[in-house]
Write a structure and sequence with these properties.
By secondary structure, the chain is α/β, with parallel strands linked by helices. It has two domains: 418 residues, Amidase signature (AS) enzymes (Alpha-Beta Complex), CATH 3.90.1300.10; 31 residues, no CATH class. It is built from 17 helices and 13 strands. Strand 12 and strand 13 form a beta hairpin. Helix 2 packs antiparallel against helix 3 and helix 11 packs across helix 12. The protein is globular.
Length: 459
Amino acid sequence: MQSLGTILELAPRLRGREISPLELTRACLDRIETHNPALNAFITVTAETALAEARAAEDEIARGQWRGPLHGIPVALKDLIDTAGTRTTSASALHKDRIPTEDAEVVRRLRQAGAVIVGKNNLHEFAYGGSSLVSFFGDVHNPRGTAHIAGGSSGGSAAAVAAGLCYAAIGTDTAGSIREPAALCGCVGIKPTYGRVSTRGVIPLSPSLDHVGLLAATVGDAAAVLQAIAGYDALDINSADVPAADYLSALVEDTKRLRVGVPRFHFYDDLDGEVADAVEQALAVIKTLVAEMREVKINVPTDRTLQAAESYAVHAENAGKSPELYQAETLRRTRSGANISAAEYILVRRELEKARRQAHSFFASEDSGNIDLLVTPATPIPAPLIADLKKDPDALRPAELVLLRNTRPFNVWGLPAISVPCGFTQKGLPIGLQIAGPHWREDLVLRLAHAYEAGVTSI
């Protein structure tokens, strides 16, 4: 499962024609053919079109028309992101033959950057879960231990990146669906600020909480992909017209002036012992990289009424007409929002806006101690065994809620957050560290994450 390097390592070699996009793409397609049967990370592999895109990239680079670090790089897409002419299934029988006529905006931007799309990743049906065990196309398996879950809902995307089947993947994150599987599979996953990356052309779960982000092998690679997909989309009502930073340049900026907050309440409660040990070791490294580290207290939202109401609204018509086309557990979760009144929804929507405004006070204020970033465990526990979650159907949702406990609040707040690997359990299961920052400051989040990644590598 070894790759030929990272995106940032390969980009100059591609530009200099030392290596070809066709070579990279064929290598990824070969790895998919070899390893996907055990992982089930892909629903659709677009081998023919990927090779055509790779040839086109090779020709453009030969003519001196290099588009940037993603030019000729094989990437994948969570299979609820529309691709013109290629089915987009949402891992559901309802959409198993659905073929969009237009690319999602995020796909358009990837193509503009010259990326090669090798396929569509498996996921938790309609993104409504954190295990990727509820899919019309079967379970996703963790490449670090195939008896364990890959997480979700972007489980196939995380498994594909961690196994070296592609160099990056686009996912979505409503309660942690990028960061949680990234943590469980041992790769990098970033959820940008709400409104930073267009959601147009992405099948929604809860529009007020949905974020589009990405998974990659390294923080540098994540920065390169985010650079390509971030930016205002006037046709997306949730998109914000806030200029994106130069994320790649931010990686090398000094971290010594940064102040880090450690919110022990909620985020550090009831941790698995090995997770707790790994995170404390990570905090010790981070302390050497920044100006100050201090404990902070933050009130954490835990109500899930908004997501339940919006998910029901999205699916009410189809679930009413064709309930047999939904997985039983997805149908149950969707219907849990059926009795939420309009008045309740208006109230929780107002609470969301209030929470997002209050999140400004977490940073650079006297109350917060003028901190710049927050650091928490990404998940309280490592990846559970698939068999344990399947033997008792009633255990699945509670386990998912535990896994998503630390990531969910940042969707409510709309803050940028990243999960980076910070160790392994004795069984070899990855552990993730979450770093979060102020609205629109993905550059700060990436800067500290990159410094931590480099610091751990150098030890």
